[in-house]
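Researcher: Let's run the pair from yesterday's discussion. Sequence first, then tokens, for each.
Model: Starting with the first of the pair.
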Amino acid sequence: MAFFEMNYQSDALRMGVTVNVILPEGAKHGERYRTLYLLHGLSDDHTTWMRRTSIERYAGEYNIAVVMPGVGRSWYTDTATGAKYLTFVAEELLNVCRGFFGGMSHRREDTWIAGLSMGGYGAMKAALTYPDRFGGAASLSGTLDIADATRRRPMDEWRGIFGFDMDNQGELKGTHHDLFTLAQNLYNEKKVFPGIYLWCGEQDGGHEYSERFSALLNQMAVPHLYESSAGDHSWSYWDIYIQNALRYLSEQLPMAAQ
């Protein structure tokens, strides 16, 4: 595998960004490979997946590219202050990477997105907002109920991201920031869902979010895999279950996306 640190001026964010990229080596001329956009958590950056897991080795096992952007504490959202982080990750970054790295497939079914914690929310938000771009999505310990999370944990920074009044925490329910609403809208519009993988540890404070989101997908008969096990909110588990996510996306996704 080859490793690149890419720095460029983002049009969506109007500033310089840094993105780490893993690419398969030895691809034949004209060969296209699948790509995973891998998102970090709230306190992490574009380097953390490389430093805390064996993602490069796992990418080699599946012969895929992995793109790891840094977005700070943005919640992968086009923020109330005008910074377009969702647009950056789900639109611009795909186009930029495909332009710079010609081996990346442009096909929806070959384009996946995954993340942990804040990144799990971001992965699901991108995939449900742009179902025509992502064939698969995975969340590890994802903060999948953002309305409940903002209500439980008041932070002033929520205002600059989502734009709500700090005296009315939790008003995100039913908006385009709410994953449950995005999923229900896709179902109502009879659009094709991405293949979805979820994992969360039973000792994780956000375990109920994955439980409830999986229950909604079951109610709508949306193909997905939800796994739960003993485990907390830590890298010792994310390093294990990103492997399960890759296995699902590479082996089960063609059936899930039909």
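Model: Moving on to the second of the pair.
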Amino acid sequence: MEQITDGRELLMVIAGGKMHTFEDILALPEGERAELIDGEMFMMASPTRGHQDASGWFFVQIFNYIQAKKGKCRAYNSQFAVFPKKDDKNYVEPDVTVVCDRNKLDDRGCNGAPEWAIEIVSPSSVKMDYERKKKLYQESGVEEYWIVDLEKERVRVYRFMEDDQAKDYSFEDTVKPGIYEDLEFDLRRLKEYLEG
């Protein structure tokens, strides 16, 4: 009988669930995407146009800022592979990822916690983004996590290196990331872009 050493694995076996690994992600039919948190697989729905617009808006501003500053960090848009716990049971694809430690990067993606992750909430991902991913990012060492909620017109910011308290910004506010002192996002411009 296979030895089970992890308490979560034991719970999943008792519940009749399967402990998934990255191999299961690779075996998915073409066009299907999923993420893993502690061996549990979560299928991903196709993003809406608004979701893609918001993701692109943040990515372009971050990318252009890094390029203008000749910064060492790298910004990646969605479908970039992140293995936040450096194992095969945790795999996510943040909508925007910023990695400053180049040693974490290889051809597969990011092995370890990125400095900054941004998720755009979809109707199907509310619990995932606000609860499961928040916990995963916090546990794995992500410095900053933003949840962009288009329906609520809000950006929730966690700066885990400071504390685990969230600060909410409306689409009428300006917000700055903690990892860059002179980068700011005028969320009114995001709102205008989404409505345009």
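Researcher: Give me one sentence on the second I can quote.
Model: The helical segments are 7-14, 22-26, 49-69, 126-140, 187-195.
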